[in-house]
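Changelog excerpt: complex records now keep ligands as SMILES alongside chain sequences, and the structure block spans every component. Example after the change:
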Amino acid sequence: MSYLSQEQTMQIGQLLRERRRTLRNEIREGLLKSGEAHHNDMAGMVSDAGDESVANMLEDVEIAEVERDLRELREVEGALARIDRSDFGGCADCGESIGYSRLKASPAAIRCHACQERRERSYAHEGTPTL
Ligand SMILES: [Zn+2]
């Protein structure tokens, strides 16, 4: 059973493949940059404590970005795999259709808008329930 038309699924698949390409490039660049920061640090030509901590900080930022990109890449891969299995477009929580417009905005979404909001509310650390 399919939630989207074949054409809609193909369009989302296209978006996902583009996103995958972008993420792979970002991950590669992030790894290269963090490698360079490390390398400069190792070279130690002008190294004092200040330079070193800046280099370490940059490296931490790069690694955090790479980790975020890797996480998103896994989601994108998962969505592409669901398209391959013709199991794409359903909400992981309620099974309803996620909806074409939502998938166009977030092609790797695994929940419909209502379930995503409910989930974010239940994990929110601040704000008081209005009920
Ligand atoms: Zn749902």
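DSSP finds four helices and no strands in the chain. Residues 91, 93-94, 96, 111-112, 114-115 surround zinc ion (CB under 6 Å).
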